[in-house]
Structures are given as structure tokens and as C-alpha cells.
Amino acid sequence: MADTKRQNAGGKVPVATPNIGSSGIVSLETALSGVIGARIRLATTASQTLEGTLFTACPITNLIALNTAPPPPTPTSSTTAPQPGDYHIIPISRIQSFNLLSLPDASSGTTITNFENAQPSIGMLDMNALKAREDAAIKVLKEREQKRGKGVGKEAQDIFDILGKTMSTRWHETSIVVLDAVIITPPYRPEDCKAPAGQQTALNRVKKVLDIERKKLAERTNKPAVPTVTPNSGLRKGG
Q1: Rounded percentage of the chain residues whose pLDDT exceeds 90
Q2: Pairing state of beta strands 12-14 and 25-27?
Q3: pLDDT tens, 32-87?
Q4: What would the DSSP string read from start to end of 52-101?
Q5: Cβ–Cβ contacts within 10 Å for residue 131, how many?
Q6: Residue 52: other Cβ atoms inside 10 A
Q7: Are 160 and 209 contacting, i.e. CB atoms less than 8 angstroms apart?
Q8: Cut 0.85: pTM above it
Q9: One-letter-per-residue 3-state SS of 150-164
Q10: Cα–Cα nearest to 170, from 25, 161, 138, 78
Q11: In what order do the strands lie in the sheet with 175-178?
């Protein structure tokens, strides 16, 4: 049994490797990466003890996956056979020490040297699809940020959002540009709408919509509160 413990100096641990003479000093991450597929018992900084098969140790996220389900009673030679699983994801920084209980049985075909024979199987990531998802998410965030006014109040943002449902809108400093033709300056009333010559149709449309939506906003703002219903005190009338 190899006992590996984290030391205070730089996160280094002495590793006792079976069938090898004197051991060197390696990081805990390296020690765990070298025993993937083995049965280990580890103690966490939260005084928790877990025992199981080390499924993987990720140097990027600094996490390990430990399968605490008991191994099959009869080893199988098929690497694709279903294996019981009860996986725990543990940050390496939370591991105080670990004991190597047993190495993978090479004769059973469970020795894990790469992702191809890992159990359960690990599929390849489609990096192009992930990059496309990332780009799409960034685009959405940028568009959302562009629709957020800088230095404007809630009413101005509400008007911008409402107009944007039916017409193209964008901010120009604190002014709202609608249909790339009409500029609405604070305080965003119909009489604050301006447009160049030849854009009278767009100007009239924006003024009409703005007038209607401002009235709706005013009605919602001035709407009386719903009266509060006082719970029955439980007292009976009439004695």
C-alpha cells in the first residue's frame, strides 16, 4: 500500500510507488494522474474518507472523479462491459492524503492508459461545435449589452425595449435611434422625435407608437395597488 500525503512546501508529496525503489518528490496532481484506474482511499480536508476506483484526474480543472461503487465480484475481460458507478467529483485542493490500495488488474483489461478504454466510455469533444456555441453566446451577450442604455433611467430603457419589439432600435449616447431614421432625445416624448427630410412616414409612425406606449406606461405606473385582504381573525359574530 502506498501512502501519499500533501506537504506544506509547495504542495509536494513523497510518493511510494510499488515495485520501484526510492521515489522522487512529485505533486499530488502528478501522483493521482499516475494511478488512474487504481483503487484508492483518500481523506479530504473536511475529515471525509472515501474509497473507490480513480476514474480520472484532470490537470486543467484540478478535479478528480472517484467511483466509490464496489468493483464487480468477477472481473471481466471486456472493456466495454457495463461497470457499476457512484461517482464523486472532488477538487484536488481538498484532498489531504490518499492511500493506494491496489493497481488495475492488467489481465482483466481494465488498465487505463488513455481515454479509449476508459469505463464508462469517454467520447471525443467536438471542438468546432463548442467554439460555435461560445461564439453564439458571446454574440448574444454583446447584443444584450448594446441594447442597454448608458446614463439613462428606467423609463428610457422601458421605452427603448418596447419600441424594439416592433422596430429596429439602437442607442446613440442617451438618444434612441429608431429605424435608422428617427432620433428620440430625452425626455423621449413624441415632440422629441426628429428625422431628416424624406423620412416623414417613419417619423409619424414612431411618434404614434411612442405616444401609445407612453400612455400604457403611465397607466401601469399610476395603477392603484390591489387592496390587501385582511385575514379572518376567527372571532364569531353575534356571541
Answers
A1: 49
A2: antiparallel
A3: 888 888 999 999 999 999 999 998 888 888 999 999 998 766 555 444 455 668 89
A4: EEEEEEETTTTEEEEE-SPPPSS--S-TTS-----EEEEEGGGEEEEEEE
A5: 10
A6: 21
A7: no
A8: no
A9: CCCCHHHHHHHHHHH
A10: 161
A11: 169-172, 175-178, 182-184, 193-194
